[in-house]
Amino acid sequence: MTDVRVHAFARPWLLAPLLLGLLAQNVVFLLTPGGPGGVAVKTALSVFVTVVVTTFFAELWIGDGRSVDPWRLLKTALVFLIPYPLLLAFGLVTTPFVYWLLHADLPQQVSLGGLYLVIGLGKLAAFALGATSAIAAARRGESSGALGALRLGAGSVFSNLGFFFLLLGGFWLFQEATVFLARTLVPGPLAAFFTTAIPLLGCVAFPIEAWRSGRLNKA
Description:
By secondary structure, this protein is an all-alpha fold.
């Protein structure tokens, strides 16, 4: 926690990716056409925006914070982009279950509980993949390519499952509570800011600092 706080306050320009993400989300929302095709376009643009924002944040966090090497930036983008099909696969697998929950003759509380469970598992899966990619970015010098770096990142996560379960689960609950309070007390862009900022801290900053500090078991 101390390492992350010191690192963050020493680099106020880390706000740039956050503000870029907020702006891009609004642009995607305004420009996306309606209809089934619009959903696919919005999904693709959202993935692109997420990868860009996360890549820039990770690069500014890992590097000197004042400059970005284009070739290194591309490698980092790959380690964040490659795992995305796994999230799409999770969506395809859970879609029939969600459809059944919405159309089955079930008590409302059961349906809502099932939907919240699917959403929660999806969030945790996204957080876990983000942490894997973040550590892969931090360890890319140990591998000759993006896939090799991802294997190292996955190894670090699996070797420290208890740590990451508590870390990512805690950040997910913190995000839900913070966004709820922001929407309730201060309606506006503040909730969107927390929606973007908290995952970047929990899935990028904390895993990288945990790895660099030597607190994680070696894969």
